[in-house]
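Quick one: structure tokens for this chain, please?
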Amino acid sequence: MSDSGSTIPQDGEFGDSWLRRRLDSPQTAAWCGFGVLVLCAWLLLAAMSFGASGGEAGFARELLASLCAVSTSGWTGNDLALAFAMWMAMTFAMMLPAGAPMLATYMDIAGAARRKGMKIPSSAVLAGGYLSVWGAFAVVATCAQWALASAGELSPAFTVASPWLGAGVLIGAGAWQFSATKHDCLTKCRRPFTWFMANWRDDTLGVLNMGLRQGVICLGCCWALMAVMFVAGLMNLLWMAVLAIVMVAEKVLPNPKPLVYGTGVVLILTGIGIVVSTLVV
């Protein structure tokens, strides 16, 4: 039996033609491309962290370790390039997933426009603008790493050597979780459809500009949590994963305030704990 309102698929609906439509979809191709980028970034970070085999530190990690003991001549161009590559991999691995709600919303709007015969730039253009902002962040983070290493403030474990500095980073990052700027940016990140409707452009330069602006909004939301890596350890994959999950969850949970405020409290209390333990010792 059947009725006119039935949603039961007809024979062959999930056959070759359905699969072909899915594989030919621009959204499917885009998500596969973004997935490959994220996977490659995590694999690169894993290679840097664990090395190729035998439980050894690995060539990339040994090079990174050398950055913690800068000679009188300072870093070479090779050292800077390696540190920048690490930060770029970190931003791709952590921030591309955090931008998924924004990318998904753009794809939905663009898909609807294409079905009406409109020519809309690929989501890769939007992602390029978004990641360009995080590329600029990677440059700043690389410079900060260079400054810390040059001052002897970066430990062999790729953490800040001074407990006072580490506590300051944690307390500052925790305080940022309560700031008006953080919550304003987070609101825009959580409502990309509303933002796109108010700022929509359908030319390539305009879409790139939307990506740049979305990148700035995301940076305002997440930069402090990324800075926590200087305390947790620049090559600590576990903390990278934890912070990445927190940043994604802030944007997709129905009510993120408990997570946002809870993370802030934990960071502040941890920073205070470091200060107290330093004073006691």
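Residues 1-24, 51-59, 67-73 have pLDDT under 50 and may be disordered.
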